[in-house]
């Protein structure tokens, strides 16, 4: 079974990918190659652009009730790709990021409990 099922249009662009299938793991060398080919500045600015695109899709859902789940999923994937690149560019490890997330959740829970 292929890692990805994809439909390629006549112009060579991938028009459909079925993400329900088993996916290939993200390789460290692929991230490094992507960052190297695009450069640090481009990669970080692309993160900002992708976050704005995700923001737009979420705001359409929240304010206009125009939920396009496929578009939201696409933008989340783009943001996560570029967040992962930013994590690497700044030299943060997975455990460091995980611990920061855990800290934020504990801090918020503590604040909520203090209000009770």
The description of the largest β-sheet is: 2 strands, antiparallel
Give the count of helical stretches: 4
| Unreliable parts | none
What's the gyration radius in Å?
Answer: 18 Å
Q: Helix and strand string, N-terminal first?
A: EEHHHH
What does this structure look like?
With 116 residues, this protein is mainly alpha-helical. The protein has 4 helices and 2 strands, in the order ββαααα. It has helices at residues 28-38, 40-64, 69-89, 94-115; strands at 5-8, 14-18. It has a two-stranded antiparallel sheet. The termini are far apart.
SSE topology sketch:
Elements: E1 5-8, E2 14-18, H1 28-38, H2 40-64, H3 69-89, H4 94-115
Antiparallel strand pairs: 1-2
Helix pairs in contact: 2-3
In short:
By secondary structure, this protein is mostly helical.
Short descriptors:
116 residues, mainly alpha, two-stranded antiparallel ribbon, 2 strands, extended
